[in-house]
Specification:
GO molecular function: ATP binding; dephospho-CoA kinase activity
CATH architecture of the largest domain: 3-Layer(aba) Sandwich
Helix content: 40-55%
GO biological process, one term: coenzyme A biosynthetic process
Protein name: HEL168Wp
Order of helices and strands: EHEHHHHEEHHHEHHH
CATH class of the largest domain: Alpha Beta
Number of domains: 3
Mean pLDDT: 82
Low-confidence stretches: 243-262
Shape: globular
CATH topology of the largest domain: Rossmann fold
Number of strands: 5
Keywords: ATP-binding, Membrane, Nucleotide-binding, Transmembrane, Transmembrane helix
Length: 268
């Protein structure tokens, strides 16, 4: 089964693309945002961990009905980026577990493809489970306009801060197999989506082979290992570029020069 990773910048139209996959092309969509909300529901283990960790830090963390006040928590995390790692360490393992469970479920139901809709696809490392990755992008001016329209309380500076808190569009482009630009109307966007889907559809023979369990397991493992290895190599290259070699001049004294020491002084 082909797992398609779908991501995009804030207010770029990723949800519209995801909806088109699901409704027009009947491709099942695994929504990471929905899963993240589910694991933070009262009674879930992640919920208790978040309450224990952040209740003393975040004012009005809980709503009167006991649910997490997600907008308040989100704003606080945005204002305290160092705490993002703590929250991610609580949420991401649970989200990954549920995502993998759903992927296996669609595989057992013999779907040829499924879409993994993850806003932080590359940042969370979930792209290693995807055979193809798609990023939805748009011009920054359009992105700011859409974000402010969606959140009227935001100023232009605040909207820009939220956009800049994510990875850059250029980085998305470099890491993605397909790019869907969403700067125009819906009809144009739908046409682009349909073209991408027609290109991605696997051959019948490929689908059959993937459902031959040994081949499917080997194919999945080779994909994951190759992506991990590529990421490892890229990390090493970045580290080498960051290393600055400092060359210190050697202290030497010509052998034919003798140093005279005054009486009473040390020769050290």
């Amino acid at each position: 089964m082909l797992v398609i990773g779908l991501t995009g910048g804030i207010a770029c139209g990723k949800s519209t693309v995801s909806k088109r996959f699901r409704e027009k092309h009947k491709i099942p969509v695994i929504d990471a945002d929905l899963i993240a909300r589910e694991i933070m529901a009262p009674g879930e283990s992640a919920y208790y961990k978040v309450v224990e960790e952040f209740s003393s830090k975040v004012p009005n963390l809980l709503l009167p009905n006991g649910e997490l006040n997600r907008p308040v928590l989100g704003d606080w995390i945005f204002a305290n980026p160092k705490e993002r790692k703590t929250l991610n360490a609580i949420a991401h393992p649970e989200v990954r577990r549920k995502i993998l469970f759903q992927i296996v479920g669609y595989y057992l139901r013999m779907y040829p493809m499924c879409v993994l809709d993850v806003p932080l696809l590359f940042e969370s490392g979930m792209d290693v489970f995807c055979g193809i990755t798609i990023s939805v992008i748009c011009n920054k001016e359009v992105q700011i306009e859409r974000l402010m329209l969606r959140n009227p309380d935001l100023t232009k500076e605040q909207a820009l801060d939220r956009i800049n808190s994510q990875i850059s569009m250029q980085e998305r482009i470099e890491k993605s197999n397909f790019i869907i630009e969403n700067n125009d109307n819906l009809e144009t966007l739908y046409l682009k989506i349909d073209n991408v889907v027609s290109y991605m559809k696997p051959f019948i023979l490929t689908v059959i082979l993937h459902y031959f369990i040994p081949f499917g397991i080997i194919s999945a493992l080779s994909l994951i290992l190759s992506k991990w290895y590529t990421r490892y190599c890229a990390k090493k290259i970045r580290q080498r570029k960051q290393v600055r070699k400092v060359v210190y001049p050697k202290k030497f004294r010509p052998a034919n020069i003798k140093v005279k020491h005054k009486k009473g002084t040390s020769r050290r």
